[in-house]
Amino acid sequence: MFVGMGLVIVAELIAHLADNRLTYDLRIAVIKRLSQVPLGWFTARASGEVKQALQDDIATLHSLTAHFYTAVGRAAGAIVIAVIYLFVLDWRMAIFALLPFPGFFVFLRRAMKASNAHMQEFVARLGRINSATVEFAGGIPVIKAFGGASPVHAGYRDAVDGFASAFTDFTRPLVISMARAHALIAPVTVLGVVLASGAAFVAMGWMQPLDVLPFALVAPGICAPLLLLHTLLHDLQGATGAAQRVLALLDTPVLPQPAPGQPSHPEGNAVRFEQVGYAYAAEHQVLSGISFDMQPGTVTAVVGPSGSGKSTLARLLLRFFDPAQGRITLGGVDLRQITSATLYQRIGFVLQEVQLIHASVRENIALARPSATMQEIEAAARAAHIHDRILALPRGYESVVGEDAQLSGGERQRLSIARAVLLNPPILVLDEATASADVESEAFIQDALSRFARGRTLLVIAHRLDTIVHADHILVLRDGEIAQQGRHAQLLAEDGPYARLWQLGAYAGPMPKGELTC
């Protein structure tokens, strides 16, 4: 007995050590893979989907590596020993005592077959409800403001209804078959079979009444380890699905990088788009035949109606994804031949969707330059008009975003501008940086950007035409193609799409003076 206990303890220890190592290696591998995939991959997926694979699925694998094999060993060992013991006592009585168990496996097979038919839909619905939950939590202020009429609320309700339907389809045949299977091997059922068979054997003189007792004690005891074995095998199915999702994440195509020792170094900061095209899906062409140049120190503005491909064009320059057709060059070198580290030292960006990490304000500003001194960080914050607001936080620059640093949308945007100022790149991409800012924040952002943009190569995605009238080159996109290009006065004189956008914006009066912003 003591030897058996010792073996169990050693087996559990080894299994948990293996689980700890596997979990660690998987998390590191997933994080490494996610750091290499195109940034556009994240925009195409809900955060709940990534969270499920990164956290929930890896946690699910714990039961597989830490408990499955040792528990299966104990359960299977108990069953094998009990069956051998019964056959040694009397093989004829053993056969009758074990008659209910083959029936259990028949019903079990039916249950597994029925559940497998709906497993894929069940897992898919589970993933959707995870994503919908994250979106719902983020949209609670809107839902409360509009009395529950938000599309996010409707999407969450649809996800819940879909999951409930899939869960019902998955469990109904499973529950019916498993109820029959469990009833068939319930201890009272097995005991009844043993006593009936034993009575018949005694009546025929094949065995003594006392000889029936071991069968009455041991045979019903097989039920518990057998049900445990079934539960473990069912858990294995869930762990297998989790493992498949983690493996799918690890197989996500990475953003191609130059071969070691073969990266090219741009000569200068001129940018060129050469017949660039991009499609999110085969039937959804977003950009087509985009060609233009951005000379160092010039401002290129991109305007157009919603859905015309403006933000996609900006993200192609940032290499969130690669063009499906054509190429983009920086300093005469294809972006695909430039390492990500080199590219993001040359190109900074301030996007409409501000991304801040759960860390201190100081760490958020220094994200692109972790080695920056405190003086440099403060100088960048002053340039972005956010220094005084940071000092007003409970712990100043050490305040953690989302905890003791509760920032408005405009303040978060100025924090991202400070990050770009600290990086000090020669090329800057501005994607509707003031679209969601209030009037006061917009004034601060406009001033910070106009000062920071001087002397740099700018690509500006504009939602207000009066902010880009001084641009050196204006591109007008329509349905993913360049409908017009030129300077402000020239485009107005042509009385084309740009002039119509200008009229729709109700811009009046003389042409604005001052620096271009966004």
UniProtKB/TrEMBL annotation:
GO BP annotations listed: lipid transport
Keyword annotations: ATP-binding, Cell membrane, Lipid transport, Membrane, Nucleotide-binding, Translocase, Transmembrane, Transmembrane helix, Transport
Origin species: Comamonas testosteroni (Pseudomonas testosteroni)
All residue ranges annotated as the ABC transporter domain in the record: 271-504
Entry annotated with the keyword ATP-binding: yes
Protein name in UniProt: ABC transporter ATP-binding protein
UniProt xrefs under Gene3D superfamilies: ABC transporter type 1, transmembrane domain, P-loop containing nucleotide triphosphate hydrolases
UniProt subcellular location: Cell membrane
